[in-house]
Amino acid sequence: MKYAIVFCLLLVALCYASKECGENEVFNSCGSTCIPNEPSCRPRPIADVPCPAVCSPTCDCASGYLRHHSGKCVTKENC
């Protein structure tokens, strides 16, 4: 069972790694799938929700950009 889970995670990582990131995004091979750790246009909710320390491939906003509620990365002026 343990090996099946690891295999599935690796398969998902390989599939995601082949995907290109969007405009103003950069690929992060060890990102987090928890509540976004990147800056966003919305205030971050305060919650004590545990987040597992597991690397997942993600597309994060490039430096100087914030995650808009539409999902795109925009400048602060366009929030």
UniProtKB/TrEMBL annotation:
Gene3D superfamilies: Laminin (2.10.25.10). Transmembrane segments: none annotated. InterPro entries: Ser_inhib-like_sf, TIL_dom. Residues 1-17 form the signal peptide. Keywords: Signal. Residues 21-79 form the TIL domain. CDD domains: TIL. This is Chymotrypsin inhibitor-like. It comes from Nicrophorus vespilloides (Boreal carrion beetle).
